[in-house]
Amino acid sequence: MSKPVIHYFPIRGRAEVLKLAIVAGGGDFDTVDVNYQEQKTNRSLYPFGQCPRLVDGDIDLVQSNSIARYLARKYSLQGKTEQEQCVVDMLMEGVESLRVKYVNLEEAAKEVYWKTYFDKSTTEGRNGGAHMQYLVNFLTANGGQFCVGDALTIADLCLWEITDLHLRIFEEQLKEVYPELIAFHEHIAGLPGIKEYLASPKRLAAPNANSLG
Length: 213
Ligand SMILES: N[C@@H](CCC(=O)N[C@@H](CS)C(=O)NCC(=O)O)C(=O)O
Known about the structure:
This protein has helices spanning 16-24, 36-41, 64-74, 82-102, 110-117, 132-141, 154-177, 179-189, 194-198, and strands spanning 5-8, 30-33, 53-56, 59-62. With 213 residues, the chain is an alpha+beta fold.
């Protein structure tokens, strides 16, 4: 099996779910610090002028969720049935809705951010379709260990990673309001491949380029 190479900045960022998928699937990866000049000017390697970019044998692609879906197929993390795969896909989009809110979070806006996207009383409010409770609903309905079916999927890794990011910022609130999410986070972090990766030097220190990172 070919070894994927991830071209990205030296942060976790949008590469982190990709790395988690590879290690959860029993694989390994290399990383290359992206050449920003090339990223901005080479439309065939970087069609959208952005990274991450994944090179894996003949496969060369960008857009993190497209890469995540490719890796999910490669490492059998896409769900077992058509029904499961549809829900996995839907949850990935649900996490993405929250991520696009998160990437612009600033210190001064933390309180409003929590109220809008995490406070259980605001699920019926205007939030751009992004609320942690919406995601947790799937997790609890499925028993709490995995979001979909009875095995790890890429949807779990997306939810794990967005939870991990928010734990840095809202640890106490998350523990109090979403204990099932904390239990899920611990469960996924202990899975083979993931556990070793998280303890290894390959797990980069910098979460992202966000000022809260
Ligand atoms: N929709 C894209 C977004 C990619 C993105 O925002 N990439 C950022 C880094 S996380 C980037 O390349 N920023 C530099 C730039 O846009 O010039 C994806 O999911 O891959």
